[in-house]
Design goal:
Bound molecules: adenosine-5'-diphosphate, magnesium ion
Largest sheet: 6 strands, mixed
Shape: globular
Radius of gyration: 20 Å
Strand order of the largest sheet: 6-8-5-9-7-10
Length: 301
Amino acid sequence: MNEFELIERCFRPLAADFPGALELADDAALLSPPPGHQLVVSADMLNEGVHFLGSEDPALIARKALRVNLSDLAAKGAEPWCYFLTLAIPAPLDEVWITRFCEGLAEDQREFGIALLGGDTTSTIGKISISITALGHVPEGMMLRRSGGNPGDILCVSGTLGDAAEGLRLLREDTPPSDPLVARYLLPQPRTALGLQLRGLASAAMDISDGLAQDLRHLCRASSVGAVVHAKSIPRAGATLEQALGGGDDYEILFAVPPEKIGSIPEGCTRIGRLTEGEEVAVLDAVGVKIPVRLAGWQHF
Ligand code: ADP
Ligand code: MG
């Protein structure tokens, strides 16, 4: 299978339901966002040996690559729409690998109602690199920002934290992919429906991909506020507190809600603290003593 056969056989079917993809037969795609809506666009790259081990089922790698982007869209309150895929793969092309990879894409396209719009494919002398750019839309002015939080807002997270960090540890000890925590690492669950519910409710929101402690600092800096978090309130399902604070790959949503809207916090979300004046981000133990939190969190360089 050469480059053009790859596009025709593997990628074109993934673009079939989206007229603007022009059957991947032109130089570019053509898009008009729904009237009254804005595009929300996010890109994420996954590299073999850094973000995935390489030995996983290629379908899972594909779905994770898509889902980390869908998680960004969810955290912005956007409805997923379509995506671009840029791939660097060692030659010769492993047809079994790429076929399985595209099956994974097809499965999640159905699950999230999205289509492939275009991309680029090259060979590499290095390892596999997968870059996806996902597009979603929101009604004009409705995108959730990191910057809208105010002192006094209630801080919440969806789901449970640290699962993926513990899952990765278990995977490295040869725990099977069927283990629920390993599954959380291999296949994140973008909180798409929650993101839509948070429109007009959350004052600030972001997805947690690099550990709560680090990502909360980013939200606080963007909002020019501090925060107090109660360690015992952080929802966990088998992870340690350290994993919940510093582990990556959660793909849950961290958001702030003004106190008068506290009754509307969606199901499956937990209050973990509140935003404060100033810039300190403190994590308190059960008796209110500050826990020294290593700045930890995932960082590439
Ligand atoms: P160019 O010569 O401009 O780089 P290509 O020949 O790479 O264009 O691409 C031809 C068509 O195939 C384009 O519509 C492009 O979007 C599509 N395409 C190439 N690689 C991918 C991919 N990995 N995923 C989706 N579409 C792709
Ligand atoms: Mg071209």
